[in-house]
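Researcher: Let's do a round of design. I'm pasting the structure tokens now; please hold your answer until I've finished.
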């Protein structure tokens, strides 16, 4: 059941500015028409805003700046590749921080987008999210632009294994850390979590004794999560595929993202250069606002599930 329109609460969601468009029946009708007009030729582009309701935090604000967690900088790609100490710190924090990501469940937006694909309205999704929730919700044609937290891959030989299996190996290697984190969990302390599986632990904590395995195929390389970290690059084949998906669509439906990362924004730019219709639904300013043919200042949650319901594709 979609939420009653009059009671949709938009103001203050995600801690963003108060300016917003009221999601009226007329607004929802126009989004519904958009999908009807471009049936089967709409490409969805999603970001962190879609997963907030699943408990995955969003660390970018309206202008792509880091917000709320003053001073927090996500781990950088080159640090993880080059520095043993950075890897110890990353894996120790991720060892603890990954658990909620394993447990996160898709929300009404993920399900509605999957329904729109099954119902023949959406022909695919390009997501910046690394949580795997679109696939878990049943979306089929999904390109994970920044990879997925579900796997780790050897930097030397590309051997890939599941993050869940890797977690078991970390547990075996670090019994004292298992105890430490168990005590922390039991104490009710809830450290701030990051979308990349990182977690804020006490600044005085030392990670010197945290052990992580090298690759069990080549016995040389280090594992890295199969995600694009800040400072890393989207793989060529992923970038090409993302452009192909835009080429194969007549219209873009962008939701729950400020398009702060260039890898996502350039898809909007590419679509605009081809004269395609671009609808953006996001609470807060986005980098693509000037390129959009329609911008709806609203949360994806207030729009996508009711539209899927109106199109009769909700299951
Ligand atoms: Zn290897």
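Researcher: That's everything. Go ahead.
Model: Designed sequence:
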């Amino acid at each position: 059941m979609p939420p009653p329109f009059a009671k949709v609460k938009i103001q203050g969601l995600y801690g963003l500015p108060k300016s917003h468009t009221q999601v009226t029946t007329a607004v929802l009708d126009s989004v519904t028409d958009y999908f009807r007009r471009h049936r089967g030729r709409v490409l969805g582009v999603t970001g962190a805003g879609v997963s907030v309701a699943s408990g995955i935090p969003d660390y970018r604000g309206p202008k792509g700046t880091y917000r709320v967690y003053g001073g927090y900088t996500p781990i950088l790609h080159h640090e993880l590749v080059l520095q043993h100490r950075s890897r110890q710190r990353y894996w120790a924090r991720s060892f603890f921080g990954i658990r909620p990501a394993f447990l996160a469940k898709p929300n009404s937006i993920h399900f509605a987008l999957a329904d729109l694909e099954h119902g023949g309205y959406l022909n695919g999704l390009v997501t910046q999210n690394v949580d795997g929730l679109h696939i878990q919700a049943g979306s089929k044609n999904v390109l994970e632009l920044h990879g997925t937290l579900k796997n780790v891959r050897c930097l030397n030989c590309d051997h890939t294994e599941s993050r869940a299996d890797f977690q078991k190996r970390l547990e075996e290697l670090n019994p004292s850390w298992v105890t430490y984190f168990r005590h922390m969990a039991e104490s009710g302390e809830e450290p701030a979590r990051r979308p990349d599986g990182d977690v804020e632990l006490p600044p005085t904590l030392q990670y010197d004794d945290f052990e992580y395995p090298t690759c069990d195929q080549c016995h040389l390389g280090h594992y890295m999560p199969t995600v694009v970290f800040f400072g890393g690059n989207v793989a060529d084949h992923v970038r090409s595929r993302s452009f192909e998906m835009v080429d194969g669509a007549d219209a873009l439906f962008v939701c729950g993202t400020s398009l702060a990362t260039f890898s996502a924004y350039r898809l909007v730019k590419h679509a605009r250069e081809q004269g395609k219709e671009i609808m953006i639904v996001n609470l807060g300013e986005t980098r693509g606002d000037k390129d959009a043919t329609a911008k709806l200042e609203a949360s994806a949650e207030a729009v996508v599930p009711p539209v899927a319901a109106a199109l009769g594709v909700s299951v």
